[in-house]
Amino acid sequence: MSFVAVDWGTSSLRGALIDDAGRVLDERHAPRGILGVPAGGFPAVFDELFGDWMAPADRRCLISGMAGSRQGWIEAPYCPCPADAAALAARVISVVPGRIALVPGLTDSHDDVPDVMRGEEVQIFGAMHLTGVTDGVFVLPGTHNKWVQVRGSRVLGFRTFMTGEFYALLAQHSILSRTVDPAAPLDAEAFAQGVARSAHGGGLLHNAFGARTLGLFERMSPAQLASYLSGLLIGEELHTQPLDAHAEVVLIGAPALTTRYALALEGLRITPRVLGAEATWAGAHALHTALQGTDAAYP
Amino acid sequence: MSFVAVDWGTSSLRGALIDDAGRVLDERHAPRGILGVPAGGFPAVFDELFGDWMAPADRRCLISGMAGSRQGWIEAPYCPCPADAAALAARVISVVPGRIALVPGLTDSHDDVPDVMRGEEVQIFGAMHLTGVTDGVFVLPGTHNKWVQVRGSRVLGFRTFMTGEFYALLAQHSILSRTVDPAAPLDAEAFAQGVARSAHGGGLLHNAFGARTLGLFERMSPAQLASYLSGLLIGEELHTQPLDAHAEVVLIGAPALTTRYALALEGLRITPRVLGAEATWAGAHALHTALQGTDAAYP
Question: pTM of the prediction?
């Protein structure tokens, strides 16, 4: 029996109809993130988008992402780290009993400051399944990037980095917006210069100003500066990570982002494995299968 | 003979009528930064604001700040570091010969990336004059903070940090804006927690996300989070500086900012000297006096 998987984010969502063997039969995207759903409007939006897929009375759906946040459909309390797939499955909560269930996010803590993810946990377990990597660093670039430590198929812990959001803020709203062209394609050389600069210890608050002066002195074009700034930020992120050349690194995300991280990791002589949306569906399938196998079936 | 000093910034300007002995006789502020002056409009705006002060035919005026930038009245090429007051005076350029002159900014370079300041150089030389400190670190907090190394009355070099701009971007335009109240007064304890957290090495891109989760878990109020975020940023800036407890530190700026830097420096057992706008007028007076003494008088 096939099932429906939905990754319901802040600004958009993706859904897939997946068969028993984990094959994706159909896929849908919609700009209906949780911020665009009015209070109490989740059942109607869900029905509008996936009503046809849910027509069979025994069709089930597993939702992950921000739909489980306080501003979402139903709040699914975070599952604490360390956590394996079984721990996550045990905390899946019911939206429509026996039919629609919500995957909780994960939480971790550093120096008594909490950290959270919602949705990425499904991708991580999916990526373990697809790659067979059960010990390594899983990196999920995005607005709020996640660096995840995995040992023995368990998520030991993770850190969030606001890299994607900082890039957007700096390129669009800061003084740098006057000299940076964020629509320009990746310039690998300028990107590498940014990554290298971030290793020199001046810190991001200082280095970012260099993206202003290099424009002011016409040493880089607006197109180059976009890649340079991206390199500064991704480099900054990399230099705070405990990575060595033997680290097994798995990148999960959109190619436009994973390409950049792969380039930056090259400088550390690390060749990552790279996955995209398939990690989400593989993770949902693994969780769905685990839930089917429990006595309670879907909660 | 008294003279007019103007510190003409990006979004506003300040002017003072200063007598031979350096006493400020009158002071004016106006929201007429260079971004608000139409092309070719500088003479008219200057006349409107300072025409009465300039009425005596031999009254002179020294302008510093962004009025000397490419978008300003006339571009004054930067003076390279190291530079002392005499080097700066030698590069003052003429706007109206013998009457109105422009102070150039300073430029420095790190790893072949240029750095620049315009206006702060006058405050630095003024602060040396007022405090007698000729060796130390001069810190000028603001949108783009300057950390300046001074040895033997010379500006050896400096670094710019976009701390003020990052704070505004994060508090007003990022996801943190939902849980941070930037209008709240300083909460010294939350600020100190932010400074302490920045020393733990996670990096700003990670630590900033803590200002989100501490709100999400209701561990800090929006008012506390504003100070915490400020502490994270100022702490990040401090930890990239080569400072020790013997460093002579001079803070120059608005009390709302210098108070925060003094608090953060306290954690390093450094008690800074603190100056405000008086540094600008003292620096302008010193430069004006130096220019009067040259053969060329004002350029």
Answer: 0.94
